[in-house]
């Protein structure tokens, strides 16, 4: 079974990478919507349109399962895609919520992400349904994506900005923090350092990869083949290939569609 | 004559504002492509497609003149639009170049902008044609747009990042600096401070407004009417209205198309 992964751009490669780590022989088809990236500043209505188009593309390429790697799309379009598609739909929000609820003791959970993700209210809603006494403290961090894409992973400026964004979450005494954006795993160490050792950090890329693996194992869909992975994007901009190398740790061939 | 202005998003409002300052009674039609913003990370091919669509929309709305407010689009799509459209096309690059060449003594001109603008090579090409001994020193500044959109106009982090970006230009001893992105006029004071008093700063929003006014005066197209300005966008995201207020200094009504 081919795993179709879509994202607003190249950030979802953190998800692709974790899936390949756990399922090295499972063929993946990636689609990054780099011609319209980012999704995190856009409206719910626009995100729904884009997410439907992205999923259709992956199905047309033969995907038997869809992973929504983009948190902004997952936060707004999951229910619609689950209803309208005939294949299983996985996404980064649900497994992260399960992991956050498993880890928290104080039931004060922090969420960092784009404005679209934080303002969607999906974490509050889903966590509230499972654990009514838990509280979600959201913090939009719009500068972290451009800082990662600029490659300033260890810059002093990045440290200061991460610290500034996390301050309200520390003051709110969260004990668990969800990295609600595909780019944030590249800043995981810095974020862990700034939020403090006693706060558990949930990495959705890893959690969704685990959920996909569990599903494939339980249903006998794990591949042993050697089919080629495919990485499609809707645009290749002046820095796209550099950014991809930073995410994957190696050069990969991008196909523009 | 209605002035049609298009931009990748809301940054072009700095251009709209300068045009309204110089031509208060001239009706404007603005289109901001917020559903696909930003343009500065995208390829030449994709920018050409978007620019053609944006200009067509403005013509369909009755624009008699097109202003390309987006530097990334102006850097890549001006020639194509000039050839294919029957109306005059103004853009932010040409008048800025003329002003920079008028101001420079050392003929060492700095350019800050998005990656698409800086890597287009248009400034080098056009300046080289007019003044072969002049040199353009370009510096992409991808973090400045998100810093402006986050509203961190006076933040310490913004100061540090501006200083870092401008350092190579100072070392190269430029005496004139072009603000090659619609968002940068909001950081003009800080940029002037960091680059030093002796460097002239060229604001393309103002230069293109002057060029449009000159054309309208010379051709008898200046309006005295009271027609309503119209501001169209392709999406209204969670922060769009706040950002618009920051650019215009007041609330304006956006129409989503």
Short description:
Two copies of one chain form a homodimer. With 257 residues, chain A is of the alpha/beta class.
Number of domains of chain A: 2
Q: What is the mean pLDDT of chain A?
A: 96
Largest interface: A-B, 32 and 32 residues
Portion in strands of chain A: 15-25%
- List low-pLDDT spans of chain A: none
Number of strands of chain A: 10
The backbone outline of chain A, from C-alpha atoms, is globular
CATH topology of the largest domain in chain A: Rossmann fold
Radius of gyration of chain A: 17 Å
Measured as a percent range, the helix fraction of chain A is 40-55%
SSE order of chain A, one letter for each helix or strand: EHEHEHEHEHHEHHEHEHEHE
Structural class from helices and strands of chain A? alpha/beta
Major beta-sheet overview of chain A: 6 strands, parallel
As an assembly, this protein is homodimer
Secondary-structure arrangement, i.e. CATH architecture of the largest domain in chain A: 3-Layer(aba) Sandwich
The number of helical segments of chain A is 11
Strand neighbour order, sheet with most strands of chain A:
4-3-1-2-9-10
